[in-house]
Amino acid sequence: MSHDEDHIASTREKLVRMANQIATFFHSKPREEGITGVAEHINKFWEPRMRRQFFELLDGDPEDFDELVIAASARIKRPLTPEQADKSLGYAKPAAAGGTVPHE
């Protein structure tokens, strides 16, 4: 596995672990309150790019996620595209160069 692949895998593992840690806390609450709590926490504290990655993982293979995370996913805000996630953080793609850049 390359360094980049290791980083991607570790990021995925971290997202799963963080979501499951949130669920572990909310298991002490009644089920409905736990579902709401997990969703509210992720919506409030996870940036759109994290939520996009979360849904990519959940849509691909949810077996590593706690069942409370899976239940809460219906209430978690899903960014539509990577660009939308970046835009909500104030990032924009640089404008395409329309020719050569003048030298100074």
Automatic annotation (TrEMBL):
<feature type="region of interest" description="Disordered">
    <location>
        <begin position="81"/>
        <end position="104"/>
    </location>
</feature>
<protein>
    <submittedName>
        <fullName>Formate dehydrogenase subunit delta</fullName>
        <ecNumber>1.17.1.9</ecNumber>
    </submittedName>
</protein>
<keyword id="KW-0560">Oxidoreductase</keyword>
<dbReference type="InterPro" id="IPR021074">
    <property type="entry name" value="Formate_DH_dsu"/>
</dbReference>
<dbReference type="Pfam" id="PF11390">
    <property type="entry name" value="FdsD"/>
</dbReference>
<dbReference type="GO" id="GO:0008863">
    <property type="term" value="F:formate dehydrogenase (NAD+) activity"/>
</dbReference>
